Amino acid sequence: MTAALSLAVSLPAVTVMFGDRLGTSVVVASIVVGLALIACTVGLAARSAARDSAEQARRDEAVLDALEPLAGLRR
User: Fold this and answer.
1) Phi and psi for 68 in degrees, rounded to 5?
2) Which pLDDT tens digit goes with each residue over 38-65?
3) Cα separation of 9 and 3, whole Å?
4) Residue whose C-alpha is closest to residue 5's, from 57, 30, 42, 50
5) Terminus-to-terminus CA distance in the chain, angstroms?
6) What angle do CA 30, 34, 39 make, to 5 degrees?
7) 12 in Cβ contact with 36 (< 8 Å)
8) Region 21-36: what's the mean pLDDT?
């Protein structure tokens, strides 16, 4: 994920620096690739956050069940 993020950050800079030497289609393609890398990185971060949240919810539920004298009967 770190490699994709660094590439997504540096790709627009390279496009700006060499934009006059590259063709229009190459500039457009590099912009699209940069945006796709950013979207993939955001998706991976969101998936990781959701997984962490679900794990925290399972741990909270286990603690609450352990605290109830008759665990699971009221649910």
Assistant:
1) -75, 135
2) 888 888 889 999 999 999 999 998 888 8
3) 10
4) 42
5) 40
6) 145
7) no
8) 78
